[in-house]
Write a structure and sequence with these properties.
This protein is an all-alpha fold and about 240 residues long. It is built from eleven helices and two strands; from the N terminus they run ααααααααααββα. A hairpin with a 4-residue loop joins strand 1 and strand 2. Helix 2 runs antiparallel to helix 7. The longest helix is centred in the N-terminal third of the chain and has 29 residues.
Length: about 240
């Protein structure tokens, strides 16, 4: 199969980035991804101050391992689901709302200080949080087909990493007042993400995605036609 790689805009990378922010759905998806992926990094950074008064170092490490491992498993599950259905908007919304419910519940169950309940929270939180990476990045690529995926994904990850840095500092300050305050801050950012994705318009998502290659930002149909042409020429 012929592989066609989309080149950078001749006007420069800043032109590509400027075009991204002309797309309303991209901006909403960007805000949601920034808060959700930023929350994932923030939670990992804040594990020790979040649970230091409840558990020892070994137990906190186990909680972190569960959070990361179940997130990795969820990525494979969600990736397979998206590959079959192409329901990117549905998946991003489901992840956002599910994660908000998990962290909202955490406000009530984590203060109990029960290790096994906290492990269950980490399992559900990781499973709901990490899949935003494949879901949101792939959806962004379908929205910005005139822009290389490297630029689109780079912008989104840059925003998320920046927020995670600020979010970790802010969460640390809230934790000085108590565990509830830090959890409330994280739950609040997830709620903002959920509100943003609820305003994303699902226009022609199914039809556009079915024939779209996220890897090359080109139509699969075009590649197939190219293969047929090459085959025809070789036969001649």
């Amino acid at each position: 199969m012929a592989l066609v790689v989309r080149q950078l805009n001749k006007e420069g990378i800043w032109e590509d980035i400027g075009n991204l922010f002309k797309n309303r759905n991209f901006i909403l998806n960007l805000v949601a991804f920034t808060f959700l992926w930023g929350n994932y990094i923030t939670f990992r950074n804040e594990l020790t101050p979040l649970f230091a008064l409840q558990f020892n170092s070994a137990e906190i490490s186990i909680i972190g391992i569960i959070f990361v491992c179940f997130g990795a498993i969820a990525c494979y599950v969600v990736g397979a689901f998206l590959d079959r259905t192409k329901k990117f908007i549905f998946t991003v919304r489901l992840i956002s709302f599910a994660l908000f419910l998990v962290f909202a519940a955490g406000l009530f169950v984590l203060p109990m200080g029960n290790f096994w309940i906290t492990c269950c929270f980490a399992m559900l939180g990781g499973f709901a949080n990490v899949p935003i990476l494949p879901a949101s990045l792939q959806y962004a690529s379908t929205l910005t087909r005139s822009t290389p995926p490297t630029v689109t994904n780079g912008v989104m990850l840059s925003f998320a990493q920046t927020f995670s840095f600020a979010g970790s500092l802010i969460t640390t300050q809230f934790l000085n007042f108590g565990q509830d305050y830090g959890l409330a801050f994280m739950a609040g950012t997830i709620l903002i993400a959920s509100i943003c994705v609820s305003f994303v318009k699902a226009e022609n998502e199914k039809g556009a995605d079915l024939k779209f290659s996220v890897l090359t930002n080109e139509d699969d149909e075009d590649d197939e036609e190219g293969d047929d042409t090459e085959g025809g020429n070789s036969k001649k």
